[in-house]
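Lab notebook, entry 472. We have the chain sequence and a SMILES string for flavin-adenine dinucleotide, and the next step in the workflow is to get a structural model of the bound complex before anyone spends time on docking refinements. Request logged below.

Task: model protein plus flavin-adenine dinucleotide, output structure tokens.
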Amino acid sequence: MRKNIHILGAGPAGLALALRLLKRASLDCDISLIEKEPFTGGLCGSFSRSGIRFDYGSHRLHACSDKGILDEIKSYLGDDLLLNKRNGRIYLSGRFVRFPLKPADLLFHLPPSFIAGIIRDTLLKPFRSKKGGVHSYGDALLYSLGKTMCERFYFPYAEKLWGLTPFKISADQAKRRVAGASIGKIMRKICSKNDRKSVFYYPKNGFGQICGSFEKHANELGGRIHVSSDVHSILHSEGHIQSIRFRSLDGKESSVEQNTDFLCSTIPVTSLVRLFQPSLPQSVLDAADKIRFRSLALVYLVLRTDQFTPFDTHYFPEKNLIFSRISEPLNFSQCSDRKGLTGLCVEVPCSLGDSVCHASEGELVSMVLDDMKKAGLSVRCEIEDSFIRILKDAYPLYELDTMRNFKVIDNHLSTFSNLLNFGRQGLLIHDNIHHAIEMANSAGDCITDKCSLDALRWRSFRRRFEEFVVED
Ligand SMILES: Cc1cc2nc3c(=O)[nH]c(=O)nc-3n(C[C@H](O)[C@H](O)[C@H](O)COP(=O)(O)OP(=O)(O)OC[C@H]3O[C@@H](n4cnc5c(N)ncnc54)[C@H](O)[C@@H]3O)c2cc1C
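Result returned:
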């Protein structure tokens, strides 16, 4: 009898795994994806409104992605995969500076006190000590970068993005989010002539076209994709997952139960552990209760003008403005059905229950417009449309004890012989799409033709995932 592999979540990780497995001729299995939203793509999806393709926040395919992964995406998208020059700006100390950073631009546009501070911190580095220990993101960055970069850039940005003071964020975060964790490394990065950092790939029809192409190929190869489907139970016995139960959220199908030979999950690990029947031990559920995600309110504006600015993305690290980024999709790809209109996507980090989440749509749009004015980006044209989307689990939060709690869950999940948990929300990894695809390909390679797990191999891949560093 043919075996069944189920994959929870049809974001890039789930879709890429489905494709990897479907392409393996020696694997005689049915592959089913279960996705709770009515569309696939997860955070990497796109949608149309007023004739404009919008993404869920600023997304680009970094040119420094693994070559094999880039080649695969190129083979699906062909000429639709555009190669663009990066053209962003960062708002620092009340001025705009080009991003990616350029040495001359920094010298001419940063306040002299900022530059003097960086020089002083660099000279004083040999005298900084780790005597009190490096317990947090704040400690790690203060030691490696000094006060100026921390207090004027990294700390306010961390507080805005993750809603935590830098001293309550795990030191691990410094490794994963700050690629050049010393002034020397940052300067080398800024001065480097690495062309791959100054360009990026972007699909003609929005970032979601990447996942759209994965979905299309998975369908052609016989994969079954159930959208608008909510998994409500994972039935297990003696360390083996036996079946899953899911129901369709659009009311078209009632609850169905399917036997499964192997279950892969890319959904938030905190949701996954609550689906097991019988329930997992209380210690595992308690650990999950302590893990939090940061949300993101996306405020979309459709403006009656051809172009708002020529820049693809503006970055706002400082805390006095509520948004962290503003992107203009038509500067990524000129794909629009309607002339004389452009769109903006404004990213406002928030936590469920805070004032941003409680604000009405009109109030949030007003807050955004007020702060855009403060940053010198007043909207002077007519606003044709505005709307909001909330990404509930946008960023896994790395609090001081997050990894300890995750370990409790991870150790327990690894006792199941036919379960693999991975992806951004599964392993709590701050990643890029190429990392999500790499995790998926690795997961696929650890599922044997007999539908069992090569656990040793998976453990070695897991160590590699710990080295991922996010590209911004
Ligand atoms: C604002 C923002 C900007 C980003 N910009 C970039 C960028 O420029 N370049 C880049 O490479 N990466 C970027 N990323 C990262 C990128 O989005 C992730 O690497 C990628 O989406 C991770 O893929 P995933 O499949 O692991 O998770 P997700 O994309 O989160 O997919 C998970 C899927 O699981 C589904 N799901 C959740 N719960 C359930 C459930 N109970 N049952 C069934 N399905 C469920 C979700 O609906 C979703 O479809 C950005 C991320 C954010 C938040």
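Notes for the group: Residues 38 and 228 are 4 Å apart (CA to CA). Worth checking against the assay data. The two ends are 47 Å apart (CA to CA).
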